[in-house]
Amino acid sequence: MSETWFVAGAAGGLGRHLVGAALAAGHDVLAADIDADGLCELKAVELKAVAATGSLTGRPTGRLVTTELDLTDRLAVDQAVRQAGTAFGGLDVVINSAGHRGVGSVEDMDEQEWRRTIETNLYGSIHLVRAALPILRPRRRGHFVQISTIGGRRAQPGLAAYQTAAWAVGGFFEILARELAPIGIHATVLEPGGIRTARADQPLPTGGWHHEYEPTVGRFARTYQRNPDVQRGDPAKIAEAVLRLTAEPDPPTRLPLGSDAVWLAPQIAAARAAQDAAWRDLSLSTDRDGLPDFTTTEVAHMVRPDQP
Fold this sequence. Notes:
It holds the Pfam family adh_short. By secondary structure, the protein is of the alpha/beta class. The chain has helices spanning 13-24, 36-40, 42-57, 74-88, 111-139, 160-180, 214-224, 235-246, 259-278, 280-284, 298-303; strands spanning 4-8, 28-33, 64-68, 93-96, 142-147, 185-192, 254-257. It has a 7-stranded parallel β-sheet, with helices on both faces.
């Protein structure tokens, strides 16, 4: 069934593959990005989708509309989302593939770089969701998909601003998924490992931090510098995975993508569980006396992560 997709961060990298896959599947796409030149190049993606599908199978491809958008501008996001409804008569899937990655130590990273990373990666996601909900909620269906990173579960020195935003986005989407479950709207945060894109090939800074951070931040920058083992993900395959995900009746709230992310996720969970267990007695010692077993309370039932 043809749908209307809104794809932010559509002009390059994974976003461009998402646009192509959606068009080839017959979906209409509103492609948004801050990169106006990159948006112009999406016409070639549309023509490629037509050549790969319509001319060979007779199945029509979706329609493409582009709009320049800075996700940190809440009013502009509202207008762009409304444009999708005007252009195609509705909205079904909202994907945020936009993002910014700053590299540096917590102490030394420039204030503007901190703000740009948090405002783009976190507030951009929040703006997009809040703009789309008034359209999706009355229809009681739809799917939000956030392209994040497995870094939203781990803690990599050198990526403090980037991963701080990713941790926040992961929590935001878990809350969003639970709020929307009774309505019939899905929310999924995708957590890929490294992806082979043009951005992944951009050189990382090799300095700009105090020498004390060389064993942590410096080692990260040197190890990740254009390392093929850090760029395992195929953006075309990820786009196809997103197509499958949006067709699922019961999609996950979080989904690691790639062998690196799949390996890391349980390692991180096990390490955290082991630390919690090691300090369990001290943790339990802070309750007031005379309280019932917390696990038997109504609050415990409400806050269980497997409850909608």
